Amino acid sequence: MIDTTQIRNAFLKRLANPLASEVLFDQLENLTYFVKDDRGRYISVNQTLVERCGETEKAALIGRTSAEVFPDPLGEYFIRQDLEVVRTNRPLINELEQHPYPTHKTGWCLTTKMPLCDVGGEPIGLVGMSRDVQSPDQDPADFASVADVVQQIKRNLNQPLKTTDLAKSAKLSAWQLDQRMRELFGVTTAQLVLQSRMDIAAKRLRGSQESIVSIALAIGYSDQSAFSRQFRKTFGMPPGDYRRHS
Fold first, then answer.
1. Phi/psi at 229 (5° precision)
2. How far apart are CA 242 and CA 11, in angstroms?
């Protein structure tokens, strides 16, 4: 059997510039890319991010934090988010949030941040990207309502979450909400709820000794057997086996 880890590590050790991918991301005008250290300081950025911060050279961002280059309150929000990813060593996946544009307006993006660890497994920074989901001249009102729904889902996974109720809170029809969810995440509202529940369940199974019953209750399943069936359907194995193999 080929040792893929050994092959990758051997190749990476030979690289003169481990941040060479930065040049590729320079070609994407609808996406910002960045690498930061454990204090949230920029180590690597693409040109799109530089321009959205009102600068022309990458050197203007390197060594500075989001709080130093973005206007408030966005800058402070971003640095808190960065430090939380590093502190918890947990990724942030497809967070719907607002970013500034060169016109000094704000637009909606899907942001993903992944912790970076040293050889001992300790987090030392993060790598991330933010992808535009609208152009600067589009009305952001629809995205704001969807962002509120996404936050409702995250805060209330232990409660019944019906698409009709979530749509009503956003002043949209269930069909309209599903359409916007598909545009942003490629799934319906109900599918996003299920995905969020299964993601949390998997993280708790991997990172704690919490009972399966407790995990099921925390994500809205009053019946452990129903949770186990859904988990097996999603991951291909029951929760107990998943924990043992993690």
1. -65, -45
2. 31
